[in-house]
Amino acid sequence: RILTEWGTPAVIVQNAGLFVLKPFEMTDPAELEQQLNLNIRAPFLLAQGLLPAMRGGAGGLHITIGSTCDH
Fold this sequence. Notes:
Blueprint: H1 2-6, E1 11-14, H2 29-56, E2 61-64
Parallel strand pairs: 1-2
């Protein structure tokens, strides 16, 4: 949908992230799934969907911003 509505991006900036601060044994599996979806799956799918078009065009930048909280 992004490519159809906006065309090939020159820059992708991934800045979303989620960090739940609680003891491991108190972390609910649904919270873990939410963190994995936002912190790992979303950047993967975004890159997988947009990078081929960027490579086929004029190129571009793919920037991922992290935090010490999620490492």
